[in-house]
Design goal:
This protein is α+β, with helices and mostly antiparallel strands. It has eight helices and 16 strands. Strands 7-16-15-12-13 form a five-stranded antiparallel beta sheet. A five-stranded antiparallel beta sheet has the order 8-9-10-11-14. Strands 4-3-6-5 form a four-stranded antiparallel beta sheet. The longest helix has 28 residues, at about 95-125. The N and C termini lie far apart (about 70 Å). The relative contact order is 0.12.
Length: about 350
């Protein structure tokens, strides 16, 4: 809505990227008199909110506040800084003095986002757990300063200590996707620890996201459980790219295609669980669509066939060599073009039997 004190400054447009994140993230703008003018929660911000006051210009004295569980991801301050900078753009246009102040704001935002990126990288399992008889390799790269991809690799606290494998992708990119990622990842981790299998874990996570929050963002997620002694893999897929099985005997790459709807989109998922066995020398590959959606300057897509080609070139190598081959192929294909989306790759290979 245009604010009466500054005609044409559409503050609802300024906060629009942040107001649909639901109960896990709230944002408000109040004027110099403390009256709410825009945001997802126009009431008074709680005492633990991240708050910044606009220092100068037509919006001097306005306060931007963000709060909710997702701000614990370390991105709340970056969001507030971004909104304050947007208010400056709405008010000052191309005025040189204002532009200098906005440049200083941009530097602060960049510093906050860099901090958020470091925090986010600590959320994903860049260091794989110790899994005797297997090797694990991974790659994570956000398309922007922060992203919406995440993956998790951990041993379950039950007999045999099976390996849990999670890879997920929040629809969209940037701060909004990163906030939903930070909120959803611990939910899914806890659900996996307290359910009987991958499908039930995704179902429980979906119920929480649908019942307790309102958002236009959704999550594609794949959850797998690997029984280490037998190599048996159980997979449930909620709208995510299907995992690939690369057999050590040289047979064609297999694609586990059964999947259901995205997490957060419907009240019930009813996901199937697919089973497969990893024999010694076999490799399971999990990835997000940032791999196949990578594009050249003229819009050509990397696509699945190039992914298969990259895998074939490294077939028989270690898990790390397969991941490196894919990353190298994507990098050469993009040739400096801005990434279309976040990229995550996880490879789990059962070691060949000894001589």
């Amino acid at each position: 809505m245009p604010h009466d004190g500054f005609p044409g400054a559409d503050l609802s447009a300024v906060v629009a990227p942040f107001v649909d994140l639901g109960d896990d993230f709230d944002l408000s703008i109040t004027d110099a008199g403390g009256q709410p003018v825009a945001g997802s929660s126009p009431g008074r911000a709680p005492s633990d909110a991240v708050v910044r006051e606009v220092a100068a210009g037509p919006f001097a004295g306005y306060r931007v506040a963000a709060w909710g569980p997702a701000t614990a991801a370390g991105l709340g301050r970056a969001t507030v800084e971004a909104v304050v900078a947007a208010l400056g753009l709405a008010a000052h246009g191309t005025d040189p003095a204002a532009q200098a102040r906005l440049a200083a704001d941009a530097r602060r935002i960049e510093e906050e986002l860099a901090h958020g990126r470091r925090l986010q990288r600590s959320f994903v399992s860049l260091e794989a757990p110790e899994v005797p008889g297997y090797e694990i390799a991974s790659h994570y790269e956000a398309a922007r300063e922060v992203g919406g991809d995440f993956f998790d690799l951990f041993r379950l606290r039950r007999r045999g200590r099976p390996l849990s494998i999670v890879i997920a992708d929040v629809t969209g990119k940037g701060i909004a996707a990163a906030l939903l990622m930070a909120f959803s990842r611990p939910l899914l981790h806890a659900a996996i620890d307290h359910t009987t299998g991958p499908a039930e874990a995704l179902e429980r996570t979906n119920q929480i996201l649908v019942d307790e929050r309102r958002s236009s963002l959704f999550i594609t997620a794949l959850c797998a459980r690997l029984d280490l002694p037998t190599g048996h893999l159980r997979v449930a897929n909620a709208g995510h790219e299907p995992p690939l099985l690369v057999r050590g005997d040289g047979s064609p790459i297999e694609c586990l295609v059964d999947a259901g709807p995205l997490v957060g989109a419907f009240h019930k998922l009813d996901l199937p669980e697919v089973g497969a066995d990893l024999s010694p020398g076999d490799l399971a590959l999990f990835y997000t669509d940032g791999v196949t959606d990578a594009r050249t300057d003229d819009g050509e897509r990397f696509d699945e066939w190039r992914l298969y080609e990259a895998i074939e070139q490294a077939r028989g190598g270690t898990a790390g060599e397969v991941v490196s081959a894919i990353c190298g192929a994507v990098g050469r294909f993009q040739a400096g073009h801005e990434p279309a989306d976040d990229i995550t790759i996880v490879a789990v290979r059962r070691l060949p039997a000894g001589p």
